[in-house]
Design brief:
There is one protein chain. By secondary structure, the protein is an alpha/beta fold. The protein has one domain (3-236): FMN-linked oxidoreductases (TIM Barrel), CATH 3.20.20. The chain contains nine helices and eight strands. An eight-stranded parallel barrel has the order 1-2-3-4-5-6-7-8, surrounded by five helices. The protein is globular. It binds geranylgeranyl diphosphate, SN-glycerol-1-phosphate (1GP) and magnesium ion. Geranylgeranyl diphosphate is lined by residues 14, 39-42, 66-70, 73, 84-87, 95, 99-100, 103, 120, 127-129, 132-133, 163, 165-166. Geranylgeranyl diphosphate binds next to β4, α3 and α4.
């Protein structure tokens, strides 16, 4: 079974951002979150990635690199694997297969046994990831559901990621994606900032991803979102 099948909650650390004063990666690992993803769109370098992966990898929690370009991939025994985005609604094919082809050309240390993909549907036109990938975010619930179904059944994706980075998404859209998937795991990320927003999104998505909150508010706020995710799972299943 895949690691992520059991995850209700992920903290995504952006190596280009800092933790709240006085907090450590050990504190983040102790929030009760199920896994740490390390990635961001802007300002990413191999050095920043390595620093965070080394720090997070010391703790007893799965750590996955989520690279936004081939140059930010680092290899180490400190982390559990690689979650490589494929952007379903990218306007530039670089973010569907192009960067992937270049990465494979230049990197001769790829460990396929712990490398997996995430089929992103990018929904917030204001997010860096939307401009970076020239995503078409003008999608309704039926479009998102169809992208999710294409990801799972045409492209064989095991993870579908509805990405509202920076804003809380539309629950009808997240629900439409959830309803259409059979076995793929639905990740939701974007704007989760407290117990209630976490619980609401976790009622639809299998796994919620909390990003900016850890950098802006810190681990106490993150712990509330872990509780929201766990409570939603307990009610749904
Ligand atoms: C093939 C390899 C190794 C890399 C390419 C992988 C792809 C397709 C990347 C596309 C962009 C993407 C989906 C990145 C994942 C990380 C992510 C969504 C971070 C959140 O981004 P924002 O919140 O918009 O950015 P900032 O927080 O950096 O402003
Ligand atoms: O930063 P936030 O808005 O929490 O979004 C989380 C994650 O989906 C970003 O890739
Ligand atoms: Mg962000």
């Amino acid at each position: 079974m895949s690691d992520w099948a059991d995850w209700d909650h992920i903290v995504k650390i952006d190596p280009d951002k800092t933790l709240v004063d006085g907090e450590t990666f050990e504190d983040v690992a102790a929030t009760g979150t199920d896994a740490i993803e390390v990635g961001g769109t802007t300002g990413m370098t191999e050095e920043k990635m390595k620093r965070v992966v080394d720090a997070c990898g010391k703790h007893d929690i799965p750590v996955y690199i989520e690279p936004s370009n081939p140059a930010s991939v680092v290899h180490s025994d400190r982390h559990d694997g690689y979650l490589i985005p494929v952007v379903m609604n990218a306007g530039d094919v670089a973010w569907i297969t192009g960067a992937h082809k270049e990465w494979i050309r230049i990197d001769d240390e790829i460990d396929w046994s712990r490398t997996f993909t995430e089929a992103y549907i990018v929904m917030n036109p204001e997010a860096s990831v939307a401009s970076y990938t020239q995503a078409n975010c003008d999608l309704d619930a039926a479009d998102v559901a169809a992208y999710a179904e294409a990801a799972e059944h045409l492209l064989g994706q095991e993870i579908v990621y509805v990405e509202y980075s920076g804003m809380l998404g539309d629950t009808d859209i997240v629900a439409a994606a959830a309803d259409t998937l059979d076995d793929a795991t639905l990740f939701y990320g974007g704007g989760i900032h407290d117990y209630e927003s976490a619980r609401t999104m976790a009622q639809h998505a299998d796994t919620i991803v909390v990003g900016d909150l850890v950098h802006d508010e810190g681990v106490d706020a993150v712990r509330e979102t872990v509780q929201g995710a766990k409570d939603a799972t307990a009610t749904v299943q």
